[in-house]
Amino acid sequence: MARSSTTSDVFNAIAEAHRREILDVLITGEKAVGAIVNDLSMSQPQVSKHLRVLSDVGLVKCRADGRRRFYRLDHEHLRPLHDWLEKYEQSWNGRLDRMDGYLSDLQRKDRTQ
Amino acid sequence: MTPNRNGAASIEYPSELEILLTRDFEAPIELVFDVLTKQEHVRKWFAPFEHQMTVCSIDLRVGGNYHMVFVTEDGTECSFRGTYVEVEPPTRTVETWLFEGWPDAEAVETVDLHETDGVTKMNLRLAFRDKAGRDHMTKTDGFEDSTNKMADYVRSLLDSKGTVSG
Question: Which ipTM did the prediction report?
């Protein structure tokens, strides 16, 4: 499957601490941009920039009310991310178990030769 | 998701998010390194069943590429590929990591091995970085105990609205 140019770089989006702070602020519900700026130690342009990234990757949704913009978490997009992380960890735990068994087998074979 | 004895944890840094896996193997470090980096070995443990690995190509040198593909039980193809940035046998490899699937995820993977009294400890770190604020890689020390903060964090966001999880 080719990697599309509009890749959902969700991981890279939440790798940034300020964006995680913004997501945390939205846990209690929808907020206007001004309210988000007040809650965090960031300038409005910074907050807007980060909201744009979060919106691009689908982690937040925006609604306009007159001149004001309100943002909220998009739980639908968080769920697949959460599931992926879980699967990744489960896969690796299985892999490490197999690797462990394989290493034991190799050493046992060595000793009997 | 409960952390298990094998130790999965994550560490957060200002512009990066890491997943950390650790495991102890009762084997000498050189053997563990070989098992991790030689395709004839990797084929034997990477996928649940050997026949599920359709591609396993490893060119272990700085600038060399690796590519792993396996097919899951429901027929989904999972592809991992990347380029080696550091290769220091038998203690360390650093490679780019690209998972082709949903979501496309790009990271830097670091594998460190350390042997004490015949037991080799492996630390595998997957670091996701903020692309806008890309900076030089820094060595990281100090490992958290086994709680997966990244997954907990995402779960906390999901649970915030009282959404049914799991």
Answer: 0.71
User: Any CB–CB contact under 8 A between A94 and chain B?
Assistant: yes
Q: Structure pTM?
A: 0.70
Query: Do A25 and A39 contact (CB within 8 A), yes or no?
Result: yes
Q: Measured between CB atoms, does A60 come within 8 Å of chain B?
A: no
Q: Pick from A12, A21, A87, A92 the residue to mutate for testing the B interface (most B CBs within 10 Å).
A: A12
Which residues on B lie below 8 Å from A101 (Cβ)? 45
Asked if pLDDT for residue B133 goes beyond 60, the answer is no
CA separation for the pair B16, B128 (Å, rounded): 6
| Domains held by chain A: number | 2
- The domain of A49 spans 10-73
Residue A10 at interface with chain B, using a CB cutoff of 8 Å? yes
Fold that domain B8-131 belongs to in CATH: Alpha-D-Glucose-1,6-Bisphosphate; Chain A, domain 4 (3.30.530)
Residue A111 lies in a domain: yes
Three-class SS of B57-74:
EECCCCCCEEEEEEECCC
A79 and A63 in a common domain: no
Asked whether A75 and B158 are in contact (CB, 8 A), the reply is yes
For the stretch A36-93, pLDDT in tens is 999 998 899 999 999 999 998 889 999 999 999 999 999 888 777 778 778 888 888 8
Residue type at position B147: T
Q: Cα(A100)–Cα(B33) distance, rounded to whole angstroms? A: 13
Do A66 and A84 sit in the same domain of this protein? no
> Which of B8, B16, B23 is nearest residue A15 as measured by Cβ atoms?
B16
